[in-house]
Design a protein that fits this description.
Elements: H1 2-49, H2 57-64, H3 68-79, H4 83-101, H5 106-112, H6 118-129, H7 133-141
Helix pairs in contact: 1-3, 1-4, 4-7, 5-6
């Protein structure tokens, strides 16, 4: 009877130990996921704050302290796109505002939002919006029919 009680206690102890190990693994995995998400959100914030500058992946990687492939995989998971596409889309969003709110030339806006030249900007803008920058400005400023 004593031997079966000891066996039972050992078995129970091992089961408890296994359950605690699984809980610890789960907590660590969640903490790692939260930490990774924070790194990616910080990288996206860096892109938004510095969109007017020339940025490179190496700058983001230095800040993230992780390998390029892991960083790119996480960025795509949490942001739904690559860092480069995220930056280009943010620049185009800023350009849309400038096209509507200012009378700056397309070349000026291209420079203001971080594109190297107006041709590259116009090509990317048209690909993203289906309109050239000037067409976008014209259609955005056009009064709505029937409005006074």
């Amino acid at each position: 009877m004593v031997l079966s009680t000891v066996d039972s206690m050992v078995t129970t102890g091992l089961a408890l130990h296994e359950m605690l190990a699984l809980c610890a693994q789960s907590i660590l995995a969640e903490a790692e996921t939260t930490s990774a998400r924070q790194v990616i959100l910080q990288a996206a914030e860096t892109l938004r704050k510095n969109y007017q500058k020339e940025l490179c992946l190496a700058d983001l990687l230095a800040e993230a302290h992780m390998s390029k492939s892991y960083f790119l995989r996480l960025f795509r998971r949490y942001m739904g796109t690559t860092p480069y596409n995220y930056l280009v889309n943010f620049r185009i969003t800023q350009a849309k505002e400038l096209l509507v709110l200012t009378d700056h030339s397309v070349s000026e806006i291209a420079q203001e939002v971080g594109f190297g030249d107006a041709s590259n900007f116009s090509t990317r803008f048209a690909k993203a919006t289906g309109q050239s920058p000037l067409q976008y400005r014209k259609s955005a400023l056009k009064p709505v029919e029937g409005a006074r």
